[in-house]
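Collaboration report, partner site 2.

Our partner group contributed sequences for two proteins of shared interest, and the home lab folded both. The records are reproduced in the order in which they were received, starting with the first partner submission.
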Amino acid sequence: MATTMATTMTRPGVNHPRGARQRRRAVASPTILVQDGNDPESTMRGLTNLRREVIEDMSSFASGELSGLLKDPDTNWQPQDWLPHPERDDFLDRVAEIRKRAAYIPDDLFVVLVGDLITEEALPTYMNMLNTLEGTKDNSGADDHPWAVWTRKWTAEENRHGDLMNKYLWCTGKVNMKACETTIQKLIGSGMNPKTENNPYLGFVYTSFQERATKMSHGNTARLAKEAGDEDFAKMCGIIAADEGRHEIAYQRIIDEVIRRDQNGAVLAYADMMKKQVTMPAHMMCDGEHKARTGRDLFTDFAAVAERSGVYTGHDYADIVDHLNKRWDIANITGLKGEAAAAQEYLMKQPARIRKLAREMGETALRQAFELPIAWTDAWGKRHETTQARPVAFHAMRGLAAHSNGFQTVRALAILMSVLGTI
């Protein structure tokens, strides 16, 4: 693959908004630039000269409008605002109240809460992912360029979410916290691969999608917690969802700015991310026991419970794609060339396609289940007199992992199987 250590010059390919064509200070990043026109497998990797110039041209936006969406730590909420104060005389009474309310929360909702906690607590992985993006990464850990400052302060705001959920679940007395802690450590150690290819366009499309998904998940969890009678925890999930919504706006505005400067590149990146499918941040979740005991993947089972309880479903995935299409006005972007025009057409078809799949397969599997008079004993030794059956069958051969795109195929199959409820 041909590469060049090139100094970026102002090029006519960048549409500078409001006539701002002045050179900006280069973002500190020892980047190998990928030349335009490489083989198709490489076109989304890293930076081209054009992508680098776009990111540099957005420095004022990053230091101004983007940073303006962050809140002052001195006035922002902190986890302790929502928890019993250990230094007060009524601490144990407040904990007892939490435990009493928690007794009415359904087990499925606790599974979702634990999964959400583990996902939020793996925050170091997500910061690390952002720092793989060329042109915006924080090289020293304390760079003063606006992209690095944004990443650190976004991480600091997100850090409160896991802290709040962790302490609350500890107070309920209904969760094996050591198992959670072990799973969190394993998840951080495993990392994640969202297939963003060190490309900031892909990275910020991913975060635009993921922040909205997280907002929806926490919002639905808040609704279910309120229905279960725990209004305090519902409010906690609600304020976390509000944070995610503010961060969603921030990342989607980044793509707004990219579209203004490089609409072909932005649309191609968005379509590329959708074709890969947006990987959930905790897709490598493992506690070291679940798979050995059940033969099933821990994250897949967590996702199945989230789907069944209505916290996050295939329809939600389709709704997010539909929202992003409208948010970025994909249908009305004009002047797209070649592959970008084809990508535009592809993107507009995706919401209906995903909803159709969810309806034809997911709803049939999950809502038309029936019971068979077949007794069985589960992994915990509990005997069940009937077996739940579904009108959908699924079989995949292990050999699928052997071909060149095997990882992507197996990952897609795992998502499909969890949606169908066949595992």
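Second partner submission, folded after the first:
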Amino acid sequence: MAATEHKTYYRNLGTLITGSVIAQLISVALAPLFSRLYTPEDFGHLATFMSLLTGLSVIVCLRYDAAIVPAPAHHANQLFNISVRTALITSGITLLTISLFYCFSIERTFLLPWLWLLPLMMLLNGLGKAVIAWLNRHILFSLIAQNNILKSVVTNCIILIAGLIGYQKFGLIGGYFMGLIISLSLLLLKLHREQKLPFVKIFDRKLNSIAKSHSDFPKYNLPQAFIDMLLINSPVYFLTYSFNTAIVGWYGLTARILQAPFNLIGYAMEQVFIQKAAEWYHAKQNIQPLLVNVLKRSSAIAAIIVIPIIWAGPDIFAWAFGSQWRTSGFYAQLLTPYFFFDFIRTPMTRIPSIITKQKQWYLWSLAGFAVLIITIILSVILKFSTVYFLTFFSIGQSAVYLSSLIWLFYQTGKLKNKYHS
């Protein structure tokens, strides 16, 4: 990179990571208090609800939001509108489905009343994805960072207040809902006042032809993203089905503590990286140095987090969250290889859409899914305990992630040779 590009890249990366770190520090600082206000069962219910929301949020825009950053300039506005229109349609279909499910459901579980929030939170997530992609395209990283901090503040304040006044059944899920709706509403209001969003025209006839020209995103990127979501949430689904809510809660705290910093920092790195990689690719510059740079930095960050967990995970969790959460620390030790490779892979997952290798990248997702299915089948047939299931899951997915990274470096190396031929 040239000196000026170096400065711009690291300034943008620093802006997003600073916002992500502040947002995460708030959650980490309050986590020991939350673990004493809420039970493992409460965290189990949260994990189940959030896994459902995550799955719906993957399909909400049919991945057209992922096309906004790498798309040509004359397509970006239309793709934003396509994303908004698609989010409205898919969330409406989800509302209808839940209405039918509620009418015909016999069993009244704890989560059943909360299902009504899923379509609204799904819509809010879809709008948020489109807006963040738009801000990313226009290098408005400070607004993304501010939004992350605001969402974290509101979410954690609601969770804390609800726990202190005895509304534990509302606190965890309600906190995430309020954080999402308040932060997005204020962001949209600010952007509207400053006229930084495109005019919303979801009924424009031109949108259909633009959507068709970017059909690879729903065809290949969407299934790949959905499978990735299943891989992330599969422990919750399997543990919910096979074991009790307390075990789901122990795993839920593990995922909350490890996944949250990895996701926030990894997402921040991805936002800056994907913008710069798309720019270099369209300029026919070699993007492999970008990959190497990000890999080194993400590996260093991940090592800082996972090494203490490997060394003394159960003791750390018991000291920080209370003795009833020692099991979560043990689960964290088992899952550190998976979280490590998932984190260093995160900033690079959008590269295939830039270099038009989405079909091949989809095959890597299918490979990960196949390994997951084999793990689940073995767990059922051999009646694996939670420990064996998480161990095989972690090792299997780590192997797939590492192999996909090697493949990605090979593909970008071929581009380098093409540019210099």
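Feedback sent to the partner group on the second submission included the following. The chain has a mean pLDDT of 85. The chain is about 80% helix and 0% strand.
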